[in-house]
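The records we work with from here on pair a chain with its fold. The integers have meaning only within a learned vocabulary of local backbone shapes. A complete example follows; check for yourself that the lines match position by position.

:::
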Amino acid sequence: MTISLKNAAIAVVGLGYVGLPLAVEFGKKRPVVGFDIKRKRVEALRAGEDDTLEVTSAALAEAKHLSFSDDPTDLGKCGVFIVTVPTPIDDANRPDLSPLVRASEMIGSVMPQGAVVIYESTVYPGATEEICVPALERASGKKFNVDFFCGYSPERINPADKQNTLASIVKVTSGSTPEAAGAVDQLYSEIITAGTHRASSIKVAEACKVIENTQRDLNIALMNELSIVFARVGIDTAEVLQAALTKWNFLNFRPGLVGGHCIGVDPYYLTHKAEQLGYIPQVVLAGRRINDNMGRYVARNTIKLMLKNGLDVPRCRVGVMGVTFKENCPDTRNSRVADLVHELQDHGVEVLVTDPHADADEVRAEYGFKVGSLSPDDPVDALVVAVGHHEYRDMTPAYLRSLTRGSAPVLADVKSLYDRHAAAAEGFTVFRL
């Protein structure tokens, strides 16, 4: 059966970090409906404003064929549906596929004969055909690979990265039949200048996505564990890594807090599938345990140094700089900084959190604490610089010292942004991963 998507209108369902850039690129070439269930988000995009900061107002204006909607009936005129909704985990670290199922049911209720539904959301191998396809069939009354077809193309968006953007990253594609795979690959070739790679099956493409972030997670977990070991040895991890990087094949991973909606989540999708099949992953779960505990580890070491310096911890104030899951990005989802803050609070500390990029209302709703500001007029007893925002990188140890009081303040420099000797010269007791 020949499948042609050449003139089909496209619906992009979910307008976050992944969906919006996709809708904009396709919207420069063909009719696209960008759909999101959040009316506030839709209204902002109609006004030319993207609060994720992934797409500029100028780029939105360039997408002449792109419209935005929160009304599912507007999707009925489309022949291609690209699903980019979140795939989070629940409190027990199990995959939460409910957003994906709801999106599939909504699409199924409006999709025409011959539609192609492409998923980009991170899932475990097999989820598209085991979970999404049945939802499409239930809602549509149509038969898979007869009345409609599916594809999977893993997203590779890196929030806040202005160099490795959608069009410049090779796109992995796949389809539920050879003809569908060809059509999906040709579709993405319209906008991906870096080229495409056609996987042999949807499951292969799904697995490709989930291991990309699992690999990063494990490498960072190794660095985090090494930082714990080196702290006990009494040497600085950053100096060890600087020396090791003189070898040509040493990989440049750094210790840190691993959060967000990809690296801190995707490995659990893989382990969930493995456990369903009777295998309990060892290495992947070990890496997750290490990374999930690093926020508390930083907080406890900060408290330990404060006690060592003779500070009365329950009467102290600690400033935490940065709460987003990565630098220069407003996204606070799954931020491990929240673990750090809550651990400090459990020790009776008054915690003052600041972040120039985070939405204060979102942080309060998600994590239960306020985002404010730090000032020399209202100093703290210790500082934790948790995120490497460029605003923080530009600060000097002398300025940081002006934010603190007393003769023995602690500086927990999680990302090793500052010269530790210069910080010590300002009077700080320095801890860093």
The chain has a mean pLDDT of 95. The radius of gyration is 24 Å. Residues 37 and 70 are 5 Å apart (CA to CA). The longest strand covers residues 115-119.
